[in-house]
Design a protein that fits this description.
Elements: E1 11-12, H1 17-32, H2 42-62, E2 70-71, H3 72-86
Parallel strand pairs: 1-2
Helix pairs in contact: 1-2
Amino acid sequence: MCRNIRQLHNFEPAATEEEVRAAALQYVRKVAGTTRPSARNQAAFERAVEAVAAATRELLGELVTAAPPRDREVEAARARERSARRFAS
């Protein structure tokens, strides 16, 4: 599951709310060991996702770097190339 969590820092444009929430959801799923919580655990699961998303937004807002922002399209092309090489055999 954690392979789906993508780096969100130092991109132009900045990470969207949907990307932050998706990363938080993947993290909570991994920690909980389930992709779908039971009805009894749904509220706790959602609170955890919101807490992790808030912590992620706070972290991204405070991080500083001297490196220039990366381009999302360039990074996506590199990832596709790595994947093609990895799964070519």
